[in-house]
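Appendix C: a fully annotated inverse folding record. The material below is reproduced so that readers can follow the format used throughout the book. The structure is listed first as tokens, followed by the designed sequence.
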């Protein structure tokens, strides 16, 4: 089956979000080798543990298999009642990270949750803020979301700075096991169309109309 035919069957493969520097498009199998290489090159300082599960601490072969399963599982589970879109973040045509957006019963609750990772070599230049802003503008302006939630460990200063920059406010916290035997505080964050701090650009969205039925909107 050629790419055009596959896109007709699974229209998310034709969805694109463009920002001044980035292209975000749902992860296709063709993106996977470069994304796996980006993961293996490093996402964070090895002394840090920014994710809910310590997947980046796994041996390389195990991390690669778990990542493949995660991408494929998220894609296969996407439908009108629940979806989890994993966007490949492309810089100069090369995948350097992933920005996801998730929702349950979106047509009713109009709420989304986000998460992301960016290759360590590309951090510190504002790309993390740009990819998150892209997904927020997509959700608020094109999907009709009324709230967006995120979370980060209290010691994940980079993620928290991105959230604060974009207008998120604290929405409570809880403690969870980050690694076996280690308790860590995780902060909930919330932003709405009224409180979001918009960037000085607009996200260009193409291919959404064909995806609306699949996303239940």
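Designed amino acids, in order:
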């Amino acid at each position: 089956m050629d790419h055009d035919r596959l896109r007709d069957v699974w229209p998310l493969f034709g969805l694109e979000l463009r920002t001044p520097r980035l292209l975000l498009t749902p992860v296709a199998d063709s993106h996977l080798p470069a994304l796996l290489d980006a993961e293996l090159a490093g996402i964070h300082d090895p002394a840090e543990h920014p994710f809910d599960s310590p997947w980046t601490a796994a041996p390389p072969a195990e991390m690669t298999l778990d990542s493949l399963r995660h991408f494929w599982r998220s894609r296969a589970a996407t439908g009108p009642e629940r979806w989890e879109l994993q966007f490949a973040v492309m810089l100069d045509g090369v995948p350097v990270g992933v920005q996801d957006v998730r929702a349950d019963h979106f047509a009713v609750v109009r709420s989304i949750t986000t998460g992301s990772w960016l290759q360590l070599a590309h951090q510190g230049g504002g790309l993390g803020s740009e990819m998150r802003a892209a997904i927020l503008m997509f959700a608020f302006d094109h999907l009709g979301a009324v709230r967006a939630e995120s979370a980060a460990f209290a010691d994940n200063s980079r993620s928290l700075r991105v959230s604060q920059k974009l207008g998120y406010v604290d929405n409570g916290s809880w403690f969870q096991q980050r690694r076996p035997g280690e308790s860590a505080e995780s902060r909930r964050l919330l932003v709405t169309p009224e409180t979001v701090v918009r960037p000085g650009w607009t996200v260009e969205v193409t291919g959404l109309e064909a995806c609306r039925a699949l996303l239940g909107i």
